[in-house]
Amino acid sequence: MVDCRVIASGLRFPEGPIYLADGSILIVEIARGTLTRVTASGVVEIVANLGGGPNGAAIGPDGKVYVCNNGGFEWHEANGMLVPGFAPDNYIGGSIQQVDLQTGDVRTLYTHCGDERLKGPNDLVFDDQGGFWFTDNGKRYARTEDVGSVYYATIDGNFISEQVYPRSHPNGIALSPDGRTLYVAETMVGRVWQYPVVAPGQVNVPPGLLNSAALLYGAPGFDLYDSMAVEACGNLCVGTLARGGITVISPEGAFVEHVPLPDPGTSNIAFGGHDMKIAYVTLSCTGHLVAINWPRPGLRLNFNK
């Protein structure tokens, strides 16, 4: 097991870490419904109450934080771990939210794409044009579940477009260092897909459900993929559920390594530090935010200075 330093404990299913220049980390707490700051000294502060189920988060070109809100889950506790379940009784749908870090004000930007309701927005990434890609994981019910999608939207709340459909539980999303490839991780099937970005907000999707041309990597065992970050060299670092840890995949689709961590709910990773060689990882089921010395520098995200 890799050595890791616990930054904060007692968090309610943390995800979506964002490293800030002052050394603090923004996270969401899905079960608490908040955007939360963990200071460099480990103090936990609530930035905004978002309700529902705030999931992925990212800094936009205006310095505000954009959040995928999945609409919430049922929650179950067992053996000291917190685990999400089906859509809750009070579920009304998912949304994209904007948070002003200075005031804590929250604005809902999107609840639909055309006539299609957003169901479980999960993770997002900004391109260098200032728009963002996001996944919609859908919601699960006792006997049915939604089919997922990948969308592109702008921060003014005026444009949203579905770009990839269907996808099975799309979760993590990332861009290559040159911005020309969009990566999407699927949770339950343990796959990572790649799509050429042909114009701002547009990707090339190979036709046909049986077409594997866009498949970058498929897990050989029972690995469930969550969110991901990209190294400066282009490797993908994917939060790996069930086995617990971070799986590293090359941009050519080769397995590089698996970094084991002590939580089957290892969900999200973000890079920070002056040399971008500290990995901040959310151990969601046990409620920890940890820091790991990483062997290679991570990619600095657009607008996250």
Topology:
Blueprint lengths: L4 E4 L5 E6 L5 E5 L4 E5 L5 E6 L4 E6 L5 E5 L5 E4 L2 E4 L10 E5 L6 E5 L1 E2 L2 E2 L3 E6 L5 E5 L11 E6 L6 E8 L2 E6 L5 E6 L4 E9 L2 E2 L11 E4 L5 E7 L5 E6 L3 E5 L5 E6 L5 E7 L5 E6 L4 E6 L12
Antiparallel strand pairs: 1-29, 2-3, 3-4, 4-5, 6-7, 7-10, 8-9, 10-11, 12-13, 14-15, 15-16, 16-17, 18-19, 19-20, 20-21, 20-22, 23-24, 24-25, 25-26, 27-28, 28-29
Please outline the major beta sheet: 5 strands, antiparallel
Counted by DSSP, the helix tally is: 0
Q: How many separate domains make up the residues? A: 1
Task: Decide which structural class fits the backbone.
Answer: mainly beta
The dominant shape is globular
CATH architecture: 6 Propeller
* Order of SSEs: EEEEEEEEEEEEEEEEEEEEEEEEEEEEE
CATH topological fold name: Neuraminidase
Strand content: over 45%
Cα-atom radius of gyration: 17 Å
Distance between the termini: 31 Å
Uncertain regions spanning at least 5 consecutive residues: none
CATH superfamily: TolB, C-terminal domain
Mean pLDDT figure:
97
Q: Residue share in helices?
A: under 10%
* Number of E strands: 29
CATH class division: Mainly Beta
Task: Kindly describe this structure.
This protein is an all-beta fold and 305 residues long. It has a single domain, classed as Neuraminidase. 0% of the residues lie in helices and 50% in strands. It has strands spanning 5-8, 14-19, 25-29, 34-38, 44-49, 54-59, 65-69, 75-78, 81-84, 95-99, 106-110, 112-113, 116-117, 121-126, 132-136, 148-153, 160-167, 170-175, 181-186, 191-199, 202-203, 215-218, 224-230, 236-241, 245-249, 255-260, 266-272, 278-283, 288-293. The strands form 8 sheets. Strands 18, 19, 20, 21 and 22 form a 5-stranded antiparallel beta sheet that branches. The two termini are 31 Å apart. The mean pLDDT is 97.
